[in-house]
Amino acid sequence: MSVMTGPAPALADGEAPVEPPKVELVLDVSGSMRATDIDGRSRISVAQQAFNEVVDALPDETQLGIRVLGATYPGENKERGCQDTQQIVPVGPVDRVQAKAAVATLRPTGFTPVGLALRSAAQDLGTGSTARRIVLITDGEDTCAPPDPCEVARELAAQGTKLVVDTLGLAPDEKVRRQLLCIAAATGGTYTAAQSADELTGRIKQLVDRARDTHTATPAVVAGTPACADAPLLGAGVYSDREKFSEHRWYRVPVHPGQELRASVSVALDRPVNPDHAVLLRAVATDGRELVRGVDAGSGRTDVVSAGLRWSASEEPEDGPSPTPSATTGAEATIVCLVVSNAFAPQPGTQTSPGLPVELTVDVVASSPAPAAPDLGRGWVLLVLLTVVGLLAGLASGMLSRWWLATWREK
């Protein structure tokens, strides 16, 4: 079996971003935004003020777009109202005066087609080699499904569009919270409940600024296989995949003599699963022998379950599988099979497709020697020393006891 060069690492040393960070703010302008329950002001006025402050503070290199939903159709025709979403500022270098003027004219109007707005916002941002970010601000759950916004988020994530959706909730409603949590979790984003104008402004600024950190090259998309023989060959890097419930996905990594494999995997729980679950990461030889494993179990109280392992090529026994010459260095390399397994079970009614988001990190570094253990000789010396100390302590204790007893009798 010849060793081929795997996909390029997602984050190469010294690699500079090739695109500016791109963000689209998606604002709910449906009728419920008239409510005056944030600092005694209407939700829409608080959102408009926050947008203005964010636009003024926008980093020069960040490209921003603004999309609205429920902003133009005031009627009762649901079919028409559920198509009501428009991009009022195109993604690109921001004309601050134009952007603030566009936001100032908004008035709460119609329905809440969140799912359609998310799908449209993804199209606004386009595709490329770096991540895009959507910041969704809404006070209510989608009133137009289908498409269901949570399913849209999973669909976008499964397409490998490198899209992160952060959600901000303006109303203390449990249904809204669950829906926004689901949208964020499906894309690796965050959910925040904003209860004041300052909270809303500060959080939007933080998310827009974070786009500067997340627009670098994202994990390379890779597809694991049901067996090691035809699994993708990976070099050092960060990779993303999707794994079905209770599935095993295989990958291969070449490890040269004197090198150590370090790998970790994280599985995001982007939908309801039963409370008890686990993720298992194993390193397996090509002949099926397990080399090492890492496992982590969850109780349903976390959104991500992770596991990791380390294995050195020097640990391979002499009668193990014969190493394979590397096409790039000529040195012999051992092919290690990495297998990611999960013990998840969906709760009733939970969608099982697409699979759960998986992020796999692979690194191959110089082996670090294991700490030396005491040899047999050192062990005997330690044993004799402990025996002598124990004997002396016993004698001293006995002498003190006898002296105390004799003194007590004299009294």
From TrEMBL:
Keywords tagged on the record: Membrane, Transmembrane, Transmembrane helix
InterPro entries the UniProt entry points to: CLCR, VWF_A, vWFA_dom_sf
Signal peptide: none
Keyword S-adenosyl-L-methionine (UniProt): no
Positions of the VWFA domain: 22-211
Segments traversing the membrane: 380-405
PANTHER family cross-referenced by the UniProt entry: CALCIUM-ACTIVATED CHLORIDE CHANNEL REGULATOR (PTHR10579), EXPRESSED PROTEIN (PTHR10579:SF102)
Protein name: Ca-activated chloride channel family protein
